[in-house]
């Protein structure tokens, strides 16, 4: 239960209190779990994480009998833009910017917020070889965190068409080789290491081709939806790539869970996609919970939903942890965030309460 200790919080939205604290039973901070602690917020940023209620006199405090975590980060999604997220008429569209196409008022974002997701990677669908450039957005407030985050590349069956080149895996690699032989525009930024890639590669052969190409050209970035990445661990490690797994649903093949466990135990940064509107918004937590059941350490699974996901997205300087100076995006949970019996009680984005009732 949440109760407001200050009159200002009892009478007005939290957003009117520029400086306030949230005291929780457990706070999952950047150095681990801190019990009986207070997160101090000032002007939408995290000012400090302190033990007990050690905050300046007169600071309004919200009491929460439960856990507090950083807001979750979905490392891939189609939120708010299905109709504008792909173009089947061209196979290479590096100039396409998904930041111009999404609807910040779409219900996808409200659903994500209700599941504790405060930041999402917005991506074009991998239905072509190079469908465009991803962006990073908050689930509330319409905030764009980064307009150009990755160049999306599709190297699996979803990007192939019988009536439009390239029509085969070999053709896709040949097209990319031509683009990187004398890189221009977005490709030049990628080749120089200024812009990472997110390469869709679902099956084993797709993953091998993607990693070989990335290693040859010294690209940085992440694999998207690579079901069996753990079975190619040495190749993944050699590439330096991170991994964005598709959500692990109930009844998922054990081999897929074992792949996540292998990646996690090897220390490879990984996260999960939340491909709204196709996935239920709780898919991130379900994925992490199933990974823990399979053998992933709970702290590692939680990082896959927060700090590691933010790092893969390239926005680790703003979201994903409760460190000083970070955006005040956090969630108050009724219990352990990886216990599927728990639920979000309140969600804050940029220090503003967007879900719940702390007054």
Derived structural class: alpha/beta
Q: CATH superfamily of the largest domain, called what?
A: Metal-dependent hydrolases
Total number of strands: 18
> Helical percent range?
25-40%
How is the biggest beta sheet arranged?
8 strands, mixed
Number of H/I helices? 10
How much strand? 25-35%
| CA-based gyration radius | 21 Å
Quote the average pLDDT: 91
Descriptive overview:
By secondary structure, the protein is an alpha/beta fold. It folds into 2 domains: 2-70 and 320-355, Urease, subunit C, domain 1 (Roll), CATH 2.30.40; 72-313, TIM Barrel (Alpha-Beta Barrel), CATH 3.20.20.140. The chain has helices spanning 7-11, 107-114, 169-181, 186-191, 204-216, 233-239, 254-265, 283-294, 298-305, 307-313, and strands spanning 2-4, 19-29, 32-42, 45-51, 61-70, 72-77, 117-122, 132-133, 135-138, 144-146, 151-154, 197-200, 221-224, 242-245, 270-272, 330-333, 344-349, 352-355. Strands 1, 2, 3, 4, 5, 16, 17 and 18 form an 8-stranded mixed beta sheet that branches. It has a 6-stranded mixed beta sheet with strand order 8-11-12-13-14-15, sandwiched between helices. It has a 4-stranded mixed beta sheet with strand order 6-7-9-10. The protein is globular, with a radius of gyration of 21 Å. The model is unreliable at 1-16 (pLDDT under 50).
